[in-house]
Design goal:
2 copies of one chain form a homodimer. By secondary structure, the first copy, chain A, is α/β, with parallel strands linked by helices. Chain A has 14 helices and 12 strands. Chain A has a 6-stranded parallel β-sheet, sandwiched between helices. In chain A, strands 7-6-8-9 form a 4-stranded parallel β-sheet, with helices on both faces. In chain A, strand 8, helix 13 and strand 9 form a beta-alpha-beta unit. At the A-B interface, helix 5, helix 6, helix 7, strand 2 and helix 8 of A face helix 5, helix 6, helix 7, strand 2 and helix 8 of B. The structure holds a DNA duplex.
DNA sequence: GTGGCTCCTTGAACCGGTTCACGGCAAGCT
DNA sequence: AGCTTGCCGTGAACCGGTTCAAGGAGCCAC
């Protein structure tokens, strides 16, 4: 009586063994599709297991095979920055869309300093909590690659890692979109263009800035007008204010994410400037809200959900032992002109 | 040689035992602060453990004590809806801010149907992957409570659960903010006010709609003008379009989240209406971008990060065996008037 | 000197799987 | 007939902790 109402007795592999009249070794072999089990016997065991509703105990399996059946994702970001940036949530959803069809789970951490990030990595690895990591937001001389290497963890890198590796790497080419943005602006007569960029310790942020500069120079535009910011709205607003203070004011500003671009528009409005009549604004990310803004934001679309899907798939393969030599090229980001960019003001 | 460069040998409890010259039982007792160990011996063991860099193996401990040392969070939402809604990401960050100081981790899942949600719950529970769940977005007759009860999992509910429970419950009172919004609108002469609400299978969405209606009626306003939508931008835009088609058009629309409100503004603009001159708009959530819009969005602020913090704290206590009888009242959401609401048009 | 008590310590079982090494048996080969 | 070979199946060890029941040492009282 007490038993029935109390903690539900879970069915063990030995229960299945007893019910099928074989040893638990054989049950294990049968259920893991190992050779050395007569087909007829295997079927009987599988049927019994299903009948009893057996599912493997994760901790037990984890203990004996030293696998966690989980992957980790650590965000080194302020909660504010994380929440206001859709990229990460979409990425997570993309990862999940693959994991939920496997027996793997996603363990996430949000930390607010590189020191805490380091600890999180060590903890996840040392505790045997995960079998692999998804590394995003690559930084200059990123210390995380050494961490995973030492911990013997598999990983997937979203962006070029600083060292050669046999783990999967996802990359894409932003230059095409950047070329399109610059062409779009130049065609509309813009000659004074400024940039508000992300933290320059962040490798992709740096690369993006350089690509923009290269294209600017090719069109004879002064490429030195850029301000480093932090991807937050407040940061974007402040940077924009500074840029608008310059005497020959820029006629266009390109931002490294939409959130800063929106805040930039707000800064422009509050000075009585019209967008795009007085100043053109181009973002990056294409967050949901961008197309509903007034004016709708010209920006560059990315595919974080797909990135997540592919990243999860490849990471699982890497955990399975597969080696990767070539990076995987993802579809390029694409420029989407909308209303916030137009002809340059006189 | 091969050993040294290969898989790093992790230090086990028996290594500590050998080094300290005691049995592994005693090491376990000492490290778990159990009574029955001489103080001097305990110190020696702890010192040795630290010296060797021992950390407990999670799977091993999980196996013997039937604890996962993790909590679960399942989102039943489209990736799109999840990504564009800051609430969830902030909630997650809040949970993490507590968990990272414990040995607990957060396991997240994103599913797109209630059937998949059910499977996710069963899987997390059955696999022994988590010790407790965070239940958000309560629905009418929410099936998740039965799931966790049957699985014997602890949980924390963000909102009133359908049944009596000894698990922690977080609640807050929206009526104050709603009273303020309605008063604000009425004071400015609004008599025709409409609502765009969230899915009415969602219990809090329903309650919010009813509270608004109650206040409307108290001021003699027709409370029947509401449209059910889905919290997405596309949904908000469509609902707004329908509302604006009505002949005596509403002079104000209140939305159940900011994303729909922004999309609603966009719909108004595209018909040549001005905000707030021709129509006032009030949102709900206060996402980061709201204050940077043009006009800045009048809305209601919530505290998802704090909710997460408190939820995690209480859930850990519940897992520890503590029982809760009274729900915990969180600070009330607060109305923040900005530029998108103003005097009613004639 | 012996019994009884407390305090500290330990061997062994257990959690629920995986896997290694071995054994029985029938078929194939010489 | 004797020996190898392959297939199928099993016992036992192992993963790294926790915990129960029992054992030894030291001390006190009778």
């Amino acid at each position: 009586m007490k038993e029935a109402s109390g903690r539900r007795r879970t069915v063990r592999i030995s229960d299945v063994a007893a019910a099928a009249g074989v040893s638990k070794t054989l049950v294990s072999y049968a259920l893991n599709n190992r050779p050395g089990v007569r087909e007829e016997t295997r079927e009987r065991i599988v049927a019994k297991a299903r009948e009893l509703g057996w599912t493997p105990s994760l901790p037990a399996r984890a203990l004996s095979v030293s696998r966690a059946y989980a992957i980790g994702l650590v965000f080194e970001k302020s909660p504010e920055a994380l929440a206001s940036d859709q990229y990460y949530t979409s990425l997570m959803a993309g990862l999940q869309s693959v994991l939920s069809h496997s027996r793997y789970s996603l363990v996430t951490e949000v930390v607010e300093s590189t020191e805490a990030e380091r600890e999180a990595y060590l903890r996840l690895a040392h505790d045997g909590r995960v079998d692999g990591m998804v590394i995003v937001d690559l930084r200059q001389d990123d210390p995380r690659f050494a961490l995973v290497r030492e911990a013997g963890l598999a990983f997937v890198s979203l962006g070029w890692p600083p060292e050669r590796t046999t783990m999967p790497v996802l990359v894409y080419d932003e230059s095409e979109a950047i070329t399109d943005v610059v062409k779009h602006l130049v065609d509309q007569g813009h000659r004074r263009v400024a940039q508000v960029v992300g933290p320059q310790t962040n490798a992709p942020a740096r690369l993006r800035r350089e690509l923009y500069q290269k294209r600017f120079r090719e069109h004879g535009i002064d490429a030195s007008r850029w301000i480093e910011s932090d991807y937050t709205a407040a940061g974007g607003r402040a940077a924009t204010a500074a840029l608008l203070d310059a005497d020959p004011r820029p006629t266009a500003i390109v931002y490294s994410n939409d959130l800063m671009a929106v805040a930039g528009m707000s800064a422009a409005f509050s000075r009585g400037l019209r967008v795009p009549t007085d100043i053109s604004i181009v973002g990056w990310d294409d967050i949901t809200i961008s197309q509903y803004l007034h004016p709708a934001l010209s920006t560059v679309t990315q595919h974080p959900f797909d990135d997540g899907k592919v990243a999860a798939t490849l990471l699982l393969e890497a955990i399975g032992g597969q080696e990767f030599v070539e990076p995987v090229w993802m579809p390029n980001p694409r420029f989407v002109p909308r209303e916030s960019s137009g002809p340059a003001s006189a």
